[in-house]
């Protein structure tokens, strides 16, 4: 796995005291305070960087709001950010996607989650002292962003792109984009270790669903949370032609987009 995208607990343990490595805990504040956290981590809860009021595309919080969060947490644009949660990384991956969209060049996902870290390394209940910054976001231009809108999705359907639905079976059967394949985002996680499966195993697994690097891939779910994890994993494996439908099925249905339903043979 590319460690510029996903880092192991060993990597984080070796680098966590580097002043330019900023660790972000996206769990609820009570978990951060009451259960403990990776030493040196700052708390930026999931709900704080998710906004459903249409301030930006989908549930993105807007560049200014994201900059305020980073500034308060003492993060600078030049820092290496490592984000984690305690849910196999799905909430932390959303932070990674958000940071990338607002121009943060070096943001990575912790392979595993807080529980995986806690099995091998010390935790802390102390809140670190941080000096606030004046974080300046640099949002990606539309042509640079992996995020695509309704019109781009329509065009991708006509081109025969591979649409990957990361939701559960009952959601997929109720309504899905035409021709989509279902790939539950949790399939990439080893339940015993709580970490990602080995890269060669992941590549073989993805290939079983036709999700290969030579395909144009469009990811969607309901509200773009679960696809964040799949997107980060595909990037770590070197997939390049991957689009991220931020509006996902929620927007598609609101625009009366064509759907299929029922079980798949």
UniProtKB/TrEMBL annotation:
Residue spans of biased composition, Acidic residues class: 128-137
InterPro entries reported for this sequence: Rhodanese-like_dom, Rhodanese-like_dom_sf, Thiosulfate_sulfurtransferase
Domain of life assignment: Archaea
Domain Rhodanese: 17-126, 157-261
Annotated stretches, region: Disordered: 120-142
Pfam family, one: Rhodanese
Keywords: Repeat
Keyword Repeat carried by entry: yes
Keyword flag Transcription: no
PANTHER family named in the record: THIOSULFATE SULFURTRANSFERASE
Protein's name in the database: Rhodanese domain protein
């Amino acid at each position: 796995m590319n460690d510029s995208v996903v880092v192991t607990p060993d990597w984080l343990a070796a680098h966590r005291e580097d002043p330019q490595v900023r660790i972000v805990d996206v769990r609820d504040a009570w978990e951060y305070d009451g259960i403990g956290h990776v030493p040196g981590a700052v708390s930026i809860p999931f709900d704080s960087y998710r906004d459903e009021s249409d301030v930006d595309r989908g549930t993105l919080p807007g560049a200014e709001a994201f900059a305020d969060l980073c500034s308060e947490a003492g993060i600078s644009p030049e820092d290496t950010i490592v984000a984690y949660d305690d849910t196999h990384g799905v909430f932390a991956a959303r932070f990674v996607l958000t940071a990338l969209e607002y121009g943060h060049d070096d943001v990575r996902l912790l392979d595993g989650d807080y529980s995986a870290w806690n099995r091998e390394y010390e935790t802390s209940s102390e809140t670190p002292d941080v000096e606030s910054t004046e974080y300046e976001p640099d949002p990606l231009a539309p042509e640079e962003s992996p995020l695509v809108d309704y019109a781009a999705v329509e065009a991708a359907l006509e081109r025969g792109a591979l649409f990957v639905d990361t939701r559960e079976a009952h959601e997929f059967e109720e309504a899905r984009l035409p021709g989509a394949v279902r790939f539950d985002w949790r399939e990439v996680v080893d339940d015993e270790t709580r970490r990602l499966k080995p890269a060669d195993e992941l590549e073989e697994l993805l290939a079983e669903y036709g999700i290969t690097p030579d395909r144009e891939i469009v990811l969607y779910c309901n509200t773009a949370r679960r696809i964040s994890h799949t997107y980060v994993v595909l990037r770590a494996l070197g997939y390049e032609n991957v689009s991220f439908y931020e509006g996902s099925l929620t927007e598609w249905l609101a625009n009366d987009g064509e759907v299929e339903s029922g079980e798949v043979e």
